[in-house]
Amino acid sequence: MSNEEIGARVGCDAEWIRNVSGIDERRFAREDESVVDLALRAAEDCLQRAKMKASDLGMIVVSSGSWDRQFPGPAASVASKLGLAATPSLDVPMASAGTLFGISLASRLCEGLGPILVIGAEKMSKIVNREPMERGVAILFGDGAGACLVHPTEGFAKVVDCGLYTDGAYSDDLKLPFESPIEMNGRSVILQASRKIPRAIAQLLEQQGRKAADVAVFLMHQANQNLIARVAQALEVAEDKFYSNIRNFGNTSSASMLIAAAEWSHTHKLAPGEALCFAAFGAGFHWGALLAEGSD
After folding, report:
1. pLDDT tens for residues 128-158?
2. Strand (E) positions, the chain?
């Protein structure tokens, strides 16, 4: 879905969309594709890349803010479609920051449960197409899913530390009521995110005796390219240290960080001891950062 196409729907031009968001295009799933379908494809791809079977998993965590019913969430259906009948499966219904919270939780539980598959899956197109379409919202979002495996002993990187935060005072500034369009105070969201994300990253790095300049790559929720630039500027690091694919995919909410990480990992390797930092901010407000380092 190009800027020209989405712009025609909401009455704005492609260049304006690019300037305010850094997005050129986004992907929309077919009408007959669900959050579960997207999550399943990401899960199967992740397990194949890790050379593991679904039966090896100790738990599944699925984050989605665009699931189409109140309960049960998508996690049980994803587990069933993977052929699992007893593996515990947990839903994290948190837009944008859900996979960061999921990875952090998995890193604490995997020693006792075994490998945990964390999935972020979103079908935002169904939501942004609801009338009345708000141009400041509709232009941002796309559909997608990403997955990662959190293993107690193996993997390309080891979770070192994380910091997670919530401030419910701003819960009305970004919300999705039942069967309604997204309601977003864009000014509040960008202001709070541009303050809170760098602060969370800086505090985490300070706890571990590291500097932002020491981090090889930042894998951040792909909300807005201008926000990514602000975070880089606040941390006094080059913007190109923040891997970005928002230009092609738009904001895929809780899926975006893992889609970016998967794409980055196709072409990059983390040297032993080299630092990688995940970061996300989303409705709630929930936000945080997670530090990992390359394994031997």
Report:
1. 988 888 888 999 999 999 999 999 999 999 9
2. 59-63, 89-92, 116-123, 143-150, 157-166, 174-175, 183-184, 215-220, 242-243, 275-282, 286-294
